[in-house]
Amino acid sequence: MKTFLISLCFSLLFLTGCQSTSGYDLKAHFGECPINGQLCKVCEQRPHPNKSIAPIYDETSLNEPVWERIQRRGKVIVGVKADTPPFSVMNEDKTFWGFEVDLMSAIAAEMEVEVEMVPVSAKQRIPYLLQNKVDLVMATMTLTKKREARVDFSTPYFQVGQGLVTANGSRIQSFQDLAGKKVAVVEGTQAFHTLGRLQPDARLINVSSYEEGLDKVIAGDVSALCSDHLILMGLFHNHKTPEKLALVEQTFAPDSYAIAMRENESSLRDAVNASIMTTWEDGTWPDAFDTWFGPGSMYFHESDFSIQLVPE
C-alpha cells in the first residue's frame, strides 16, 4: 500500500510538472483534447483520436508557411469526401478508397510526405481550410470565381459535367425538363448555382447529404437530384435499391475539379502543381483514370481532359 501511494504521488507530481512546464494537459489525456479549439503541446506532436478535427497548428506556427509546416511534420493533412464513389469513400475502419484517394496518395508521394485523410462534407470544405483543420482539400471541389475569393486552387486535375438522378419511370431527360419541378441539391455544392442559372424556373431544395437527396427522389418529394454526373453515377451503382432510380444520360455545364488551399501559400501551390503534373507525365494519373473510369469499369467515362503542363 505504501509503495502504491508513493507511486501515485510521484505520478501526480510528474503530470503537474509537465502541465506547468511543457504544456502537458491532464484533460487531453483523458480524451478531452482539444480544449478551446487548441491541442496541448504533447498532443500536437503525437497521434490523437481528435487531432484530425482540431486546428492542426499551435500559435507559434501560425505565421509559418503551410508548406514548411507540412515538411517539418512530414505529413500533409487533406480533407476528402466520405460518401462520394468513385472519388472518395470512407470505410468503417476509417480508411478511404477512390480515384481522388489514389491520386492524392501519389501527389503526396511526389511531395515526399505522408498523407492523412480527414472526411469533409461539401459544406465543410472551405471552413476546414480557413480554420486550419486541414492543409488541403481534394473533395470533388469545383474551381469557381466565388470560391477563389476565399481560397486558392491548384491546377485542375479533373473535369465533369452536371447530371441528374430521377425516380425510375420519370420522363425527365435533361435540365430543360425541370421547370416548375422540385430538385434536390446538396448544400455547399456547385449544382445550386449552375442549375439555378440554367433553369431558373426549377424549385431548388437544399439537402444535407446525397443520401437524403436520393431518399427524397424515391419518396417523390422531389423530381430529381442534381450534382456532378460521375458522383451521381457512383451513388446510383452503389445504392441499395438502384431499381427505384434512373440516371439521366445527358450531362451539362462541365466544370473542373482542383485542390483547394489557404490563400497566399505560393510555395505549397507550386509543390502541389508540380506533383500533379508529374502524375500526368509518369502515367500515374492515366492509370488511376483507367482503373476507375476506363472500359470495363462500373463508372465508365469517356474524357479528353488532360493536365495542363508547364515547360521546364
Concise synopsis of the structure shown:
The protein is of the alpha/beta class. Helix content is 35%, strand content 19%.
Describe the structure.
The chain has 312 residues and is α/β, with parallel strands linked by helices. It folds into two domains: 55-157 and 258-293, D-Maltodextrin-Binding Protein, domain 2, CATH 3.40.190; 160-255, Periplasmic binding protein-like II (D-Maltodextrin-Binding Protein, domain 2). The chain is built from eleven helices and 14 strands. The strands form four sheets. Strands 8, 9, 10, 11, 12 and 13 form a six-stranded mixed sheet that branches. It has a three-stranded parallel sheet with strand order 5-1-6. β9, α7 and β10 (203-207) form a beta-alpha-beta unit. The chain starts with a helix and ends in a 19-residue tail after the last helix. Residues 1-37 and 39-52 have low confidence and may be disordered.
The CATH H-level homologous superfamily of the largest domain: Periplasmic binding protein-like II
Radius of gyration over all CA atoms, rounded: 23 Å
SSE sequence, one letter per element: HHHEEEEHEHEHEEEHEHEHEEEHH
Class computed from helices, strands and strand pairing: alpha/beta
What is the CATH T-level topology of the largest domain?
D-Maltodextrin-Binding Protein, domain 2
Number of domains: 2
Number of helices: 11
Which percent range fits the helix content?
Answer: 25-40%
Q: Main sheet? A: 6 strands, mixed
Low-confidence segments, given as residue ranges, are 1-37, 39-52
